[in-house]
């Protein structure tokens, strides 16, 4: 069966684009923007509410898909708006080696929290401890959440930043 290109759906995600032509008053040819765009060579963007003009080009454009993009905004909102822990408090992050988890860990460390992260492999656990400075990290595939958090002494107030769906049996610590 031969599908026409009109039948195929384009994958969309956050990305950086260069404006080639525009009739919108806020965007001109040559502007760099970030927002939801198609994974394709050229995109026709008709709804501009989700696009922001990039005004700071002294950082790599890839930052707008990470730290300054959706992962960064998600991490910031989850940590500062939803959790709001104080210095010395415990923060546990599941899937901590992912784009959002890494950033939540960095935010938590920057204000002096005790940070524990879980990841699914030895390499990712090592990355959390050595490169990202987590106080503790463990492989959730090898040991249960309850056992690990109990052993890490996280019985006091605990902020959980969940990036994956998991069993909540450990919440009874």
TrEMBL record:
GO terms for molecular function: 2-alkenal reductase [NAD(P)H] activity. Residues 99-153 form the Alcohol dehydrogenase-like C-terminal domain. Keywords: Oxidoreductase. It holds the Pfam family ADH_zinc_N. Residues 8-49 form the Oxidoreductase N-terminal domain. The keyword Membrane does not apply. InterPro entries: ADH-like_C (IPR013149), ADH_N_2 (IPR041694), GroES-like_sf (IPR011032), MDR_fam (IPR045010), NAD(P)-bd_dom_sf (IPR036291). Coiled coil: none annotated. It comes from the Eukaryota. The keyword tRNA-binding does not apply. This is Alcohol dehydrogenase-like C-terminal domain-containing protein. It comes from Amborella trichopoda. The lineage of its organism: Eukaryota, Viridiplantae, Streptophyta, Embryophyta, Tracheophyta.
């Amino acid at each position: 069966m031969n599908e026409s290109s009109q039948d195929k759906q384009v994958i969309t995600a956050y990305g950086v684009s260069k404006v080639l032509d525009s009739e919108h008053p806020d965007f001109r040819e040559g502007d760099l923007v970030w927002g939801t765009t198609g994974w394709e060579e050229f995109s026709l963007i008709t709804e501009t509410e989700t696009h922001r003009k990039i005004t700071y080009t002294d950082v790599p454009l890839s930052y707008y898909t990470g730290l300054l993009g959706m992962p960064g905004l998600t991490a910031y909102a989850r940590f500062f708006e939803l959790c709001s822990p104080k210095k010395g408090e415990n923060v546990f992050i599941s899937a901590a080696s992912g784009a959002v988890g890494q950033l939540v860990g960095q935010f938590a460390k920057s204000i002096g929290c005790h940070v524990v992260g879980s990841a699914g492999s030895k390499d990712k656990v090592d990355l959390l401890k050595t490169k990202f400075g987590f106080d503790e990290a463990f492989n959730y595939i090898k040991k249960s959440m309850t056992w690990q958090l109990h052993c890490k002494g996280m019985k006091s107030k605990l902020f959980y930043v969940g990036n994956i769906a998991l069993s909540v049996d450990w919440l009874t610590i």
